Amino acid sequence: MILMRIDVHAHLWTDDYLDLIESYGQDASVNRGLGAGDGPQEVEARFALMDSAGVDRQVLSVSPRVPHFADEAQAVRAARLANDLYAEVTGRHPERFSAFAALPLPHMDATLKELARGLDELGMVGAAVTTDVLGASLADPSLAPLWEELDRRGTVLYVHPTGGAAGSPLIAEHNMRWMVGAPVEDTIAVTQLLLAGIPSRHPNVKIISSHLGGALPMLLQRIDNQYGWEAPGAPEKPSDAARRLWYDTVGHGHVPAVRAAAETLGADRLVLGTDFPYENGDLFRRAVSYVQEGLGEDAAGVLDRNAAALLGL
């Protein structure tokens, strides 16, 4: 196997895209001015940073600024703009960038059409969504056609937090939207999928959860112990279902966290993530080195083999 260090959790936005989604009501202020654009200077600086950490390729996603809008025309326009942008960027830098397609959810016919365009025409390696779709769970029955199509294709679905504070004012109103809210959203979304039986019903979908699955490594034994009476309809033991998924290694350099994820979920289920541009400079390099520090001989697979095998690159 050819070794390739692939970062599955990396973002790129243009002002045109951010302007569009802001005109539709999303607040994209936190995504601006971070060096995550497509201009030559920003891209070359990104490549130099990647090289300094030994990262060969990034898989780009617009999440959390996904084109999920109640208005179908707005959702479709934003999704097409994002995907056309990524097709152009990956076409300019095919050795360094791949991309996940953006989907105009919750509009299913349009979503399936754009998924097909992204995968079949634009060369995307999967699709990306957020941990909820306008407040609806990813396990909601309305999304069944998407899961069926992803399963039929055997493709990747990358799941990133929404930034909605898990719908809780106790998070949003206390300055914890991203530091606490994001991993809470990861935890909720992946547990909803486990209890709903999505991984077993759609075994060909390669689901990647962000941030080590949130608190899942710490909670999985508790979930196993309690699902029998709290979620008796779950079709399989949650820990078995959890090991059908993959998890990116974004853990902000905290060695005990990546060790807990490897011991709980399996090092073979971890793939490198950096959260560029939010982890930049030394933090970016630490996103790689802490995996090496924490996982010992298992680090080589996590850093250089797992994502390439998962994505078919």
From TrEMBL:
Which SUPFAM superfamilies does the record cross-reference, listed alphabetically? Metallo-dependent hydrolases (SSF51556)
Task: Give one GO molecular function term.
Answer: hydrolase activity
- Read off the Gene3D superfamilies from this record: Metal-dependent hydrolases
Supply the alphabetized keyword list.
Lyase
Residue ranges of every copy of the Amidohydrolase-related domain listed in the record = 6-313
User: What's a single GO BP term from this record?
Assistant: secondary metabolic process
* Annotated Gene Ontology cellular component terms: cytoplasm
The record's section on InterPro entries has:
ACMSD, Amidohydro-rel, Metal_Hydrolase
Q: What is this protein called?
A: Putative amidohydrolase (Aminocarboxymuconate-semialdehyde decarboxylase)
Q: Which organism is it from?
A: Planotetraspora kaengkrachanensis
